[in-house]
Amino acid sequence: MRCKKKIFILQAKKLMRLAGPLIISNLAFTLLGSADTFFMGRVGPVELGAVGVASTLFLAASVILRGTVGSAMILVSQAFGAGDKQKVKQHFQQFIALAIILAPIAIFLPTLFRMYFSLTKPDETVLVLALQYMTIRSIEIPFSLISKTISSFMLGVGNTKIPMGVSWITVVVNLILNYLLVFGKLGFPRLGLAGAAWGTVVAQVIEMTIYILIVLKVYNKEYGLTKDLELPTGKDVRKMITLGFPMGLADSIDICAFGILMTLISRLGTIELAASQIANQLNDLAFMPAFAIGTATGSLVGRSLGERNTEKAEKYTTLGIILGVGTMGLISLCYWLIPQIFILPFTPDPDVYKISKLLLRLMAFYQVFDVIYIVFRGALNGAGQTRFTGIATALCVLGIFVPISYLGVYRFGFGLWGAWSGPVVYVLTLVVLLASRYKMGEWKEPWEKESVLVKSKKQLSYEAS
């Protein structure tokens, strides 16, 4: 009993050693995305609105590509767990190649954004500024994809500290460049909205450069990352896209769903929209530890499966749920008991506060189930079940989240609570679907069969000798 407890504590420490820096990295990524909004708030309301629209659309589009190359973590962690350095190198090289292959898609993004605006028909001034911002930001895609590939490689081999440090360097660089280029300081031209976009692009270039220098210095000698370059075949590319695209698509659709939710709520009134925006921002903040625990669980599950140890993989999943529910339960308790600490920095308005307080209690309920979904998703992704998790998420957004929110507001007249019922039913459904898939055990069958074959070969070799 004491031995099992000791093993549990060791595994918990390993999980938190991965998740801890990831939480801080996610905070940096959030700040990187909100820096442009912060500076535009000091330029003008039109620029602020344009960046608000543009940054959300750009994130929804770019996260598909980032999620695709980010699946490098799955294959690298499996190879790392198996102790196969050749495979680790191969996956690194092939996913870097995939990032380069996908990079030219950035050329077509401005056209896609124009098509979107031609359908939605926003204010003409906002349209022009938003397109300018997104066209410039599209330039960062190639650099961002390479950075994401390298950070995913590092996560696969169990290093989250370096990505944490690089993320914060990028944030600081972005803030400095935005200040110089938006307001025209120290002899730089005053570019306004364009300056914010260029500042982020240059920060991404610097981030990629740092990642390349570090990965070559730290890992090139051990894995020979630059030796015997092995470019992916067409079959390899299809396999990588099949693995990673569902992950990116699921994240993108999830982002879009909350954007649609805010659009529906905007028609209910300014107070309801303001309260919902506060609740959504606090939900995003609380999402960071949940996402970090889910990602760390996926990495350790992949590593355990690489070791052909499905029992260990199951223990990490269970541990991830325990730690996730414990962490999010504590945050939810704070949201329930002391909501004023979180709400008042956003608004002093008593009407907005009253509704925000109720929504925050709903978020407290939502977040506990959200982390369970995220951990199950991370575990299944770590086993390579990305197609199921991606399709399940997409179908639940399109078939549950959006329809229930829409019907709750416009068909049944439940107002704000009808709108927010969509994400609640959505996350509960995903928990049931992913938990059922996980408990069926299909995800571990290939690894158990391979483990039996390896043991059989070793036994035959032993008997022959």
Provide tags for this entry.
465 residues; 17 helices; globular; mainly alpha; single chain; disordered C terminus
Question: Gist?
Answer:
With 465 residues, the chain is mainly α. Helices cover 85% and strands 0% of the residues.
Residue stretches low in confidence (pLDDT < 50, at least 5 long) are 456-465
Beta fraction: under 5%
Order of helices and strands: HHHHHHHHHHHHHHHHH
Number of domains: 2
Task: State the end-to-end CA separation.
Answer: 39 Å
How does this model look, in words?
With 465 residues, this protein is mainly α. The chain folds into two domains: 17-225, no CATH class; 244-458, no CATH class. It is 85% helix and 0% strand.
Indicate the topology:
Elements: H1 2-40, H2 45-70, H3 72-81, H4 85-102, H5 109-120, H6 124-137, H7 141-156, H8 161-183, H9 193-223, H10 234-266, H11 270-306, H12 310-337, H13 339-343, H14 350-382, H15 386-411, H16 415-440, H17 445-464
Helix pairs in contact: 1-2, 1-8, 1-9, 1-11, 1-12, 2-6, 2-7, 2-10, 3-4, 3-7, 3-11, 4-7, 5-6, 6-9, 7-9, 8-9, 10-11, 10-15, 10-16, 11-12, 11-14, 12-14, 14-16, 15-16
